[in-house]
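Dear colleague,

Following up on yesterday's call, I've attached the two folding results inline so they're easy to grep. Please treat them as preliminary; we haven't cross-checked anything against experimental data yet. The first protein's sequence and C-alpha cells come first.
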Amino acid sequence: METLYIEAERTTPEVLLRPEADLYYITGNSFPANPLRFYEPVLEWFNKFLKTVTSIKVLALRMEFNYLNTASQKQIARLVRHLADSQISEQVLIEWYYHSDDLDMLEAGQRLQN
C-alpha cells in the first residue's frame, strides 16, 4: 500500500499515512473552504487500506490540530466512525493531542470519543 502524504498549508493539516512504518497522523490547522473535498482522499486511502489488510492488532491514528472548524470536525468524525466500524483491527486507537490550555480542542476530542 502506498503512502499518502499531503503537505500542510495555512488552512489544511499535514496528513501522513504510511502503513509500512505504522505511521498514521493528521496534524496542523483544519479549516479548508471545502472539508469534504480535502478529507475525501484520506477516506479513500483508508478504504483501499482496509481492503488490502486482513487484520492488524492496533490501528493508532494520531491527530493534533491547532485549529479545527466545525465542518472539519464532521469529516474527522466520519473517518473515525469508518475506522471503528471496519473491524480490521482488535483496537482502533485515536491519539488526540491538544495544548493543555485549549479547552475547545479538548471538547472536540471528547465529542469524538462519544
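Below is the second protein, in the same order (sequence, then structure):
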Amino acid sequence: MPALTTTRILDIPIHHLTVAETLARVEAFMAEPRLHQLATANPEFVMTAQRDDAFRAVLQQADLCVADGIGLVWASRWYGRPLPQRVAGSELVYHLAAACATHGWRLFLLGAAPGVAAEAGEILRKRYAGLEIAGTFPGSPHLHENEAIVRRINDSQADVLFVAYGAPNQDKWIARNRDTLATVRLALGVGGALDFITGRAVRAPHWIQQLGLEWLHRLLREPWRWRRMLALPRFAWAAWRESRRLQPNGRPRQP
C-alpha cells in the first residue's frame, strides 16, 4: 500500500482517504496478525484532545484517523492540504459490516445501552447475508470490567470490533487493550452508530448532510447537547489561526 498522506490539524494527523481507500486499507490490515485501530475524528475529538493528553496520544498513534466531521474537511483547505472526502463513521459501519459478510470476518459489537448491541447485530445480520456476529455485549469502559470483557471478546474469536462507548472512552479502551485482544484485527469506536442502526436515533436527511449541517439537525433534536456543540466554533477559530501560521508543508510561515 502507498504511504499515507496526512493533514495535521491542531496536532492531530488526519489521513487523506476516501471511503473506498479506507476499506482497501482495512482489507490489508486484516491480513496482518495484530490489532489495528481506526479512529473517526471530528472537530469535537480534536478539541477534546487539546486538553486530554491521553486521548491526543491515542489519535496520534491510531493506524488510521479519518475525517468523520465535515469541519475537518473544510479546515484542511485552510492548511493548503485539502482532505478528499468525509468518511462518516455512521456510514462506515455499514460498509465494514458488508465487508465482514463478504470476507467471512467475525464481527463483535460492544457498548451502547443494554440490548442495543444485540438488536443492532441482528439487524446487520439480516441485512448482509453471511455476516457472522461473533457476539454482543453492553459492558462499560470502566477498569473493573476490563478483564472480563476482553476475555469474552477473545473467546468469541472476533476479527472486527465495534466499540460504542462514546469518545474519548471508546478510543482509549481500544488503545488500552490492543495488546490483549488476541484475535481482533480491526477495532474502531462507533459512537452512536448502533443507535442509528436500531432507529433509536435518527440521522439528518442526506441534503442536510451534504450542506455540512448535520450538527444543527442533531442540536435541534437533542438541545441538551448545546454545550458540546460549542466545540465547533472554538475548533474553527483555533484551526484558522493555526493555518495562518503554517505553510502547507506544516512548517511555520516566514515573517
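For the second protein, one point worth flagging: The chain has a mean pLDDT of 92.

Best wishes,
A.L.
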